[in-house]
Amino acid sequence: MINQPLKIINEPGSQVIYSGGGYTLLQLIIEEVTGITFSKYMDKEVLKPLGMENSSYSDDYNKSNMSKAYGYFGQEVPNYNFTEKAAAGLKTTVSDFSKFVLANMDGYNDQVRGGNVLTNKSVDLMHIPVKSDSGLGIFSKELSDGSTFLYHGGDNRGWHSLYGFIPEKREGIVLFTNSDNGIDLRQDIYNFWLEYETGVMPQQYYAMEKSRNLNAKIVITFTVLLAVYILFFIVKLKHGKKLFVTRKGNISLVKFLIRILIPMILAGVIYFISYKMDILPLQGGLKNAVIIIFAWLLVFFVTGFFTKSKKKAKEGIIA
């Protein structure tokens, strides 16, 4: 897959469009102006001044205690080193990143706002929305109690995160997960934290729960149907109405191949996109839906080796 070249399509400050490519352009500008790599610049100008000693943008930063990323089914996923370092290259810890969050809040523990890295004016530019809910690299929304919540989330394969803070209260939250199952965990903690801060559960939580409950009901329904299907098959097998294909069953070779190949192919596709490549969004209980679909295909594959008994069929006609 070839990405299209980055283009400036609007005058800066006139319209808001989220652009990961824009951060990459910023990374290249920093390297062009300073003459050093982006990772070295960030280490010198941002990370070290903020006391973030366990953070780096370098590909060579590979400590023995670094977390690994996992997919929805517990499989380990590759640890990518992104060329888009400004957008997706930071390696850090919760305690380290908390120092960045604290530097965004005025006077916390006598700390200077901006952490001696940015001026008050620069911090304001980051926080104040322009044209929508977006500031410079950070989003803003008003909470139910009238306070302002500034935040940004991140998602990559196996990694899901969110940080946010309420400047008026000088309180914040940092969430890092190293599993695709962390999407649901992140959203739950985030919503319950907002309820703790405001006394009101966000409406998005109820919408999320409604979706989860619907997915659960669908999975339960198809699980029950599968159990009934298996039970009926066992009864037919016990009464001789089903025979293994090698016992002169009434089925052509072409029909037999279709019956076993289609479930195999579909199961292979599901395995590849949900487990091997881990590219399906399976949060909110959708993982269980994939499991039950896979179970159905497995049962279809097994039952495909059985066919109606010719003898029973003839007896039925004579009767």
Characteristics:
319 residues, alpha+beta, Beta-lactamase, four-stranded antiparallel sheet, two-stranded antiparallel sheet, 11% strand, elongated
Care to describe what's here?
InterPro entries: AmpC-like (IPR050491), Beta-lactam-related (IPR001466), Beta-lactam/transpept-like (IPR012338). Residues 9-187 form the Beta-lactamase-related domain. This protein has 319 residues and is α+β, with helices and mostly antiparallel strands. The chain has two domains: 20-201, DD-peptidase/beta-lactamase superfamily (Beta-lactamase, 3-Layer(aba) Sandwich); 215-318, no CATH class. The protein contains ten helices and six strands. The protein has helices at 20-34, 38-47, 85-88, 94-103, 120-127, 182-198, 203-238, 253-276, 286-303, 310-318, and strands spanning 139-142, 148-156, 159-166, 171-177, 242-244, 306-308. The strands form two sheets. Strands 1-2-3-4 form a four-stranded antiparallel β-sheet, with helices on both faces. The chain has a two-stranded antiparallel ribbon with strand order 5-6. Helix 7 (203-238) runs parallel beside helix 9 (286-303).
